[in-house]
């Protein structure tokens, strides 16, 4: 009974967004208010509260208040900070028109239709997801494809399918970092834990590194099966090796960015070696332009500098990483609930994105004043997103601190038993489907997965496909891997695709076309998670 009561906020969020089609920020506000009421008046009477609070006679009002405050703090630092800076970096490119140079350069890279689509969706889309996220990886490639003459429905669906593997490491690794922090016992994951969780996500997605590019190529050109298989294997291998190394040795900040750059390089090598220089298909409209080194460096200065700052602040340069992590760090214990809030003002990815964006914007000709005005405009335009994330993180913290998440996990484990690991990715996909964000899905269900692992006794060190690590982190990683499949069906993602492709009112048609791949994705994730625990 307590599990059924505890799941009310999640069910309510689903019903509001899907059943009544209430906007995301309004649904989040309503759900948070209902969660507060449940915490104040239902949780104490049903014995849901953790023993540390009941034995100490802690006030439920204090627990509720400080849980919400904790949620707001964690939402702002660093989640919202990263999102604002990431979108700000993209807006600079639009303001300076340098995004057009980047688009044109991709278009002119190959005469092969399939390879061109793969470059735009898997390559450029992956870079955009890794740098900015938040729909840019769907909107920009889709708009370019339509500009090249591809049909809107094809452009929308193929961009949604391509924007999957990179999602867990989007916006400079925000979803994976958030997940690790949710699972960490003290609320702040160590660098070693961040690397472990990121590595597990890559392993669980291993097959999709090959299957997804192959499907993109087959959807573009069904006749060249042998070429499609060869190219998918070639690009997939480059992608997974680079992403695995980034995750294992650096952390969750760079796999999507550097992995997508590696995929682009692999595609260009393949194009040089195996694609004849022939006239492009009539479906593709290309206007040849030449760009000098100066123009190219100027266009890529924003993203190039962001990558540079992220890399030098990571564990690749230990001295810099240690310096940043040990200075200007805000850390304090929250009253009543006893949790610790910690934020490094110099070491967070948001600052690295901001520095790269501002310096790149100056290089591209904007004044500092203009950049600050654009930053303010970007922040104002994201106000509904800010409200949504604040409410969802507050709801997640409140559910965790009052024992609701723990009770849901116990209910799920009781229902599925030893088969729970197979269903773990499904939970993550539901979270993304509801909220439109892998980050929010990890906020909602990351702790639940860890609690379920504990209830199943999955708390030991083990080996997964040859990589050693903690069983709890393996199961938690399944939430992030599964959340990427839910991105295909998320109403928010589809809304971005329909807007970019001018397909208002065709959301249902797009969802029907992405549904089979989403189901396949979730099943494959579940199989990999289960096999990792019980076979390999």
What this model shows, in words?
- The relative contact order is 0.15.
- A hairpin with a 2-residue loop joins strand 3 and strand 4.
- The chain has a two-stranded antiparallel sheet.
- The longest helix is centred in the first third of the chain and has 37 residues, at 60-96.
- The protein is mainly alpha-helical.
- The model has no long low-confidence stretch (mean pLDDT 89).
- It is 73% helix and 3% strand.
- The chain has helices spanning 2-6, 8-19, 24-41, 51-54, 60-96, 98-107, 113-131, 136-147, 152-162, 170-183, 191-204, 208-220, 225-249, 255-274, 293-299, 301-312, 318-325, 349-363, 368-381, 383-401, 404-416, 420-435, 438-455, 471-486, 491-500, 507-534, and strands spanning 329-333, 340-344, 461-464, 467-470.
Question: In summary, what is this structure?
Answer:
By secondary structure, this protein is mainly alpha-helical. The protein has helices spanning 2-6, 8-19, 24-41, 51-54, 60-96, 98-107, 113-131, 136-147, 152-162, 170-183, 191-204, 208-220, 225-249, 255-274, 293-299, 301-312, 318-325, 349-363, 368-381, 383-401, 404-416, 420-435, 438-455, 471-486, 491-500, 507-534, and strands at residues 329-333, 340-344, 461-464, 467-470.
Class by SSE composition: mainly alpha
* Poorly predicted sequence stretches spanning 5 or more consecutive residues: none
What's the main sheet like?
A: 2 strands, antiparallel
Secondary structure tally: strands: 4
Task: Please report the distance between the alpha carbons of the first and last residues.
Answer: 37 Å
- Nearest-integer average pLDDT: 89
Relative helix content: over 70%
Figure out the total of helices: 26
Q: Please state the CA-atom Rg, rounded to the nearest Å.
A: 23 Å
- Quick one: overall form? globular
How is the largest sheet built, in terms of strand order?
1-2
Please indicate the percent range of residues in DSSP E strands (runs of 2 or more).
under 5%
Order of helices and strands: HHHHHHHHHHHHHHHHHEEHHHHHHEEHHH
């Amino acid at each position: 009974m307590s599990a059924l009561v505890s799941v009310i906020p999640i069910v309510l969020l689903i019903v509001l967004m899907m059943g009544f089609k209430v906007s995301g920020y309004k649904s989040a506000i309503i759900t948070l208010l209902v969660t507060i009421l449940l915490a104040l008046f239902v949780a104490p009477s049903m014995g849901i509260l953790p023993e540390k609070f009941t034995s100490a006679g802690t006030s439920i009002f204090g627990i509720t208040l400080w849980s919400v405050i904790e949620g707001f703090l964690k939402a702002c630092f660093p989640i919202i900070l990263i999102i604002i800076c990431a979108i700000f970096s993209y807006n600079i490119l639009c303001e300076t028109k340098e995004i057009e140079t980047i688009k044109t350069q991709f278009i002119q890279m190959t005469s092969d239709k399939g390879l061109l689509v793969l470059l735009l969706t898997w390559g450029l889309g992956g870079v955009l997801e890794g740098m900015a996220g938040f729909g840019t990886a769907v909107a920009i490639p889709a708009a370019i494809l339509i500009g090249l003459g591809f049909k809107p429905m094809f452009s929308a669906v193929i961009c949604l399918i391509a924007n999957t593997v990179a999602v867990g490491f989007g916006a400079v690794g925000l979803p994976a970092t958030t997940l690790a922090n949710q699972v960490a016992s003290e609320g702040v994951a160590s660098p070693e834990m961040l690397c472990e969780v990121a590595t597990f996500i890559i392993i669980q997605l291993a097959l999709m590194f090959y299957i997804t590019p192959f499907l993109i190529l087959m959807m573009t050109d069904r006749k060249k099966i042998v070429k499609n298989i060869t190219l998918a294997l070639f690009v997939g291998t480059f992608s997974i090796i680079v992403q695995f190394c980034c995750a294992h040795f650096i952390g969750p900040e760079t796999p999507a960015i550097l992995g997508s750059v590696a995929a682009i390089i692999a595609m260009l090598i393949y194009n040089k070696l195996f694609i004849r220089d022939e006239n492009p298909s009539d479906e593709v409209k290309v206007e040849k332009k030449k760009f000098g080194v100066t123009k190219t460096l100027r266009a890529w200065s924003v993203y190039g500098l962001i990558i540079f700052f992220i890399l030098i602040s990571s564990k690749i340069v230990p001295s810099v990483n240690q310096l940043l992590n040990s200075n200007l760090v805000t850390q304090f214990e929250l009253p009543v609930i006893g949790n610790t809030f910690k934020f490094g003002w110099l070491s967070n990815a948001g600052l690295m994105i901001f520095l790269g964006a501002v310096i790149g914007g100056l290089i591209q000709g904007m004044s500092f004043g203009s950049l600050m005005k654009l930053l303010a405009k970007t922040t104002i335009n994201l106000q509904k997103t800010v409200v949504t994330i604040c409410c969802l993180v507050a709801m997640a913290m409140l559910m965790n601190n009052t024992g609701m998440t723990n009770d849901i996990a116990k209910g799920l484990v009781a229902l599925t038993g030893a088969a729970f690991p197979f269903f773990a990715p499904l939970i993550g996909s539901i979270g993304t489907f509801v909220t439109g964000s892998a980050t929010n899905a990890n906020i909602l269900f990351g702790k639940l997965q860890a609690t379920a692992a504990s209830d199943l006794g999955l708390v030991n060190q083990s080996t997964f496909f040859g990589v050693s690590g903690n069983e709890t982190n393996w199961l938690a990683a399944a939430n992030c891997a599964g959340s990427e499949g839910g991105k295909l069906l998320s109403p928010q993602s589809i809304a971005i695709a329909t807007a970019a492709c001018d397909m208002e009112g065709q959301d249902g048609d797009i969802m029907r076309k992405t549904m089979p791949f989403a189901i396949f994705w979730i099943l494959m994730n579940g199989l990999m998670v289960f096999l990792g625990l019980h076979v390999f």
